[in-house]
Amino acid sequence: MPIILPKDLPCIERLQKEGLQVSDSVPPGIVPIRIILLNLMPQKEDAEMEFYRMLSYSSLHIQIILAKMSHLTYKTTPQAYMDRFYTDIQALMTQHFEGMIITGAPLEHLLFEEVSYWEQLKSVFRWTQLHIRSTLFVCWGAQAALYSLFRVPKFWLHHKMFGVYEQTPRALSLPIFRGFDSHFNMPQSRHTEVRLQDMKYVKELDILAESPISGAGIVSAFEGREFFVTGHLEYSRDRLDFEYRRDINKGLPIHPPYHYYEDDDPEKPVRISWRAHAHLFYTNWVTYYVNNPKLDKLPIQ
């Protein structure tokens, strides 16, 4: 089924050329699943595209509502684009939605309390627990939510966690892992981490997938009302290559992304080893959690 995007969104034609089913209006007689995308990434359109590609594999009608934090001005995305296609999150907080995705953000160098919109973001996290059936927190968004909701701290890494790391699911019987193999790969791109030992004593949290190198991969709470993904299953083929060459050109200390290029050689092609499981993950999330009204009855304390 087509994903339904804001009317006249510039990327619709590009997505259609990629073979995705996309519409800018709700078909007559259809009540779509509504998913908010709270996009905290600087390059808004690039981040949007990655999530659209993931969600387009669902067999359900999905309507995406683009959301932004209040009272921000934008440098890397035209303000006119934000004003036209994005809704202030505050205007949505009187409603209930089936799903929500809160993205990462390049704010790792700051303490959470130093983020300009931290107080509002904390209120958004609390709101999701009562008004969103299932919320997906990604990378920095996952670390921020774990800290705000469960007091799980983040720690600086000596070296950037950068590359594609094998994850092991703890329970393949869970609906989120339906169709998965015994291991799957996930891109990571972060300077900070949350630690397994800080989460295993939080009774609300279940560690669903982990790596001996990159640590916690996927964590859930309240039987799937919340998912915290430390990496970027949504990443496109060339995203890590772009980040690597960008940092090289800036003279920043960076190593080639782990297990990303053939033979770990940046002059060789990219090994795409995560996309099939990424599509499965997002399809399972929508099918078995976002579209599951039984989750509405699960209490969140």
Question: Your description of this structure?
Answer:
- By secondary structure, the protein is of the alpha/beta class.
- The protein has a single domain (3-236, 275-297), classed as 3-Layer(aba) Sandwich (Rossmann fold).
- The protein is 29% helix and 25% strand.
- The chain contains 9 helices and 12 strands.
- Strands 1, 2, 3, 4, 5, 6, 7, 8, 9, 10, 11 and 12 form a 12-stranded mixed sheet that branches.
- The longest helix has 16 residues, at 275-290.
Give a short account of the largest sheet: 12 strands, mixed
CATH superfamily: Class I glutamine amidotransferase (GATase) domain
Tell me the overall shape: globular
Our count of domains comes out at 1
Query: Uncertain runs with pLDDT below 50, 5 residues or more?
Result: none
Query: What Rg is obtained from the alpha carbons, in whole angstroms?
Result: 18 Å
Q: How many β-strands, per DSSP?
A: 12
Proportion of helical residues: 25-40%
Distance between the termini: 35 Å
Q: Give the overall average pLDDT.
A: 95
The computed structural class is alpha/beta
CATH class: Alpha Beta
Instruction: Tell me the number of helical segments per DSSP (H or I, 4 or more residues long).
Output: 9
Helix/strand order: EHEEHEHEHEHEHEEHEEEHH
- At CATH level 3, the topology is Rossmann fold
* Corresponding CATH architecture: 3-Layer(aba) Sandwich
The proportion of strand residues reads 15-25%
Short description:
This protein is α/β, with parallel strands linked by helices. The chain has helices spanning 11-17, 44-55, 79-85, 89-92, 118-131, 140-150, 196-199, 239-249, 275-290; strands spanning 3-4, 22-23, 33-38, 62-68, 87-88, 97-102, 132-138, 155-169, 184-193, 205-211, 215-221, 226-229. The model has no long low-confidence stretch (mean pLDDT 95).
